Amino acid sequence: MFDDMLVAQIRRLNDAWPELVAPVQFAVEDVPPSDPAPWEATPRLGSQSFPAEHGIPPRIVLYRMPLQSHARSRMDLQFAIRDEVVLRLAELYGRRPEEIDPDWGM
């Protein structure tokens, strides 16, 4: 179910922003790494983005267990996935999340 929700968000955003979404690789992991990188002041529990570097395309990783554990319903989980994907896309491209999806955070 989680993966299907993520795919639905990727498709929806790709329809509106193909130039932003198409180059990005998306992945799902169960939990974030237990040892955050030294430059990370606070660990990111819901998702993380990685800019393109050394021939590797930009990536967004969503962490299934933290997102599912905070969701009280299927709708909560859909909104959480949407918000994480939009937030990380905005982060990768130096935009505000509201530019990518006006409903972000609602």
From TrEMBL:
Extract the Pfam families matched here.
Zincin_1 (PF06262)
Spans annotated as Disordered: 33-52
Record protein name field: Peptidase
* Top-level taxon in the UniProt lineage: Bacteria
Q: Which InterPro entries match?
A: Zincin_1, Zincin_1_sf
Q: Which organism is it from?
A: Bifidobacterium catenulatum DSM 16992 = JCM 1194 = LMG 11043
